[in-house]
Amino acid sequence: MNKIDKSPPDLPLDLVARFAEIVGRTNALTDPQDLAPYLIEDRNLYHGRSSLVLRPGTTAEVAAICKLANATRTALVPQGGNTGLVGGQIAMNGEVVLSMRRLDKVRDIDPQSNTMTVDAGVVLATAQQKAIAVDRLFPLALGSEASCTIGGNLSTNAGGTSAMAFGVARDLVLGLEVVLADGRVLNGLSKLKKDNTGYDLRDLFIGAEGTLGVITAAVVKLFPRPRAVETAFIGLNSPDDALKLLGLAQADALGSVTSFELITGLAIDFYVRHIVGARDPLPARHPWYVLIELSSSTTHLRETIEGILSGALDAGLINDAVIAESLEHRQAFWRLRDSITPSQKPEGGSVKHDVSVPVAAVPAFIAEASEAVRKLIPGARPFPFGHLGDGNIHFNISQPVGGDKDAFLARWYEISDLVHGITRRYGGSISAEHGIGVMKRDELPHVKDPVAMELMRTLKATLDPHNILNPGKVL
């Protein structure tokens, strides 16, 4: 899928030398072996091509690169941890890769203001750890947090498992530093929660996937670190029961529900089958599961979660549940959740969707989409899981048992058209948290308001008139 001839176009040697002069020879990569890791992503769907990767170490270097690229009409593809899932970070047509990983400094931590100022290349897990070190919480939580970067998280407006309580990446930012296509630097690294001085330019660049500017630093919000965390793994019969359980939990926990993950029973089957040492957290297999986590500054959450589960059991909403008895037990639950995607790989081809619908519509959407997929491809195995608390479901489909992987994946867009059509009927979005990139670019005009598309194109033409920033992505 989307595999392109890997032979890179030749950049003029004098131009390569001028770029190399900005970052230093050791940070201007031209050897094919050095380039290779930057030109393919984890799912192996997009194979890029480029003859040059630049690794700037300062905002000034990024600005100089953009200024030269703009003057010479040289296209750039900004790249963070290269964990994107829609091809937005891959140089598809010989563009210069602008790797942001060396911009990895935590510039400032201010516990009193509950803010942290970080470079774009800071790894998400590092940001989380730095917050913990000052008794604070940076709540963005993703399966790829050990390698994804803050700049990439903001460029894609990442969501994750805590979005229902704390919001998506956009909600966690106070200020940005951005290098524009012509090399000018927009210095908006403000810690202010209130600032009504004109247009809020920050939100233009969050979720823009590097097409409007290159995010080089951000001021992110911190929160008080929870004093109590309770986590439970629950077996139940249906998404409808899970939705009712969510309502019960939110009513009883008074704002303490920070994660509520819906998991198909098929995911547990794959997990036990393919992950060494894995087992079902519950003694019996259930059609569906929920991973729920409560967090609070109080110390009385055990009684709260026990009350929720007892009430749900009495109401017939759940079949069984286990509450984590230790940090290790809790981490085991989350390792299972993070292993869902890798446990699919040994089962063959998987067509993946990152959709959202109104929370109340999730059960009906899953039922309708599952039936439609099975009708389209007999034997296909719907594999829905995700963040029920905010309506974001990763509606994946594994190939039929014993089927041909390539033949199944060749129907990717046919399957996606079906699933996305159902998503739209429920008033949903075809991209909840992964972005548009290459994968959904051509579909976007068919699902986005025409006036919104016109405004997006106007913004692109205004901020990047020579189309040097991540061309061919999003628009």
Descriptive tags:
34% helix, 475 residues, single chain, alpha+beta
The geometry reads as globular
> What is the radius of gyration?
23 Å
Number of strands: 19
Oligomer: single chain
Low-confidence stretches: 3-8
How much β-strand is present in the residues? 15-25%
Arithmetic mean of pLDDT:
95
Q: How is the biggest beta sheet arranged?
A: 8 strands, antiparallel
Distance between the termini: 20 Å
Structural class: alpha+beta
Helix content: 25-40%
User: How many individual helices?
Assistant: 17
Brief overview, please?
This protein is an alpha+beta fold and 475 residues long. The protein is built from 17 helices and 19 strands.
Descriptive account of the structure:
This protein has 475 residues and is of the alpha+beta class. Helices cover 34% and strands 20% of the residues. It has helices at residues 13-23, 32-35, 59-72, 124-133, 150-155, 163-166, 202-205, 239-253, 265-274, 301-314, 327-338, 340-344, 362-376, 405-409, 412-425, 444-447, 450-463; strands spanning 28-29, 53-54, 76-79, 96-99, 106-110, 115-119, 136-137, 173-179, 185-188, 214-221, 223-224, 228-236, 257-264, 288-296, 320-323, 350-351, 354-356, 381-387, 392-398. Strands 12, 13, 14, 15, 16, 17, 18 and 19 form an 8-stranded antiparallel beta sheet that branches. A 5-stranded antiparallel beta sheet has the order 5-6-10-8-9. A hairpin with a 4-residue loop joins strand 5 (106-110) and strand 6. The longest helix has 15 residues, at 239-253. The radius of gyration is 23 Å and the shape is globular. The protein starts with 12 loop residues before the first helix and ends in a 12-residue tail after the last helix.
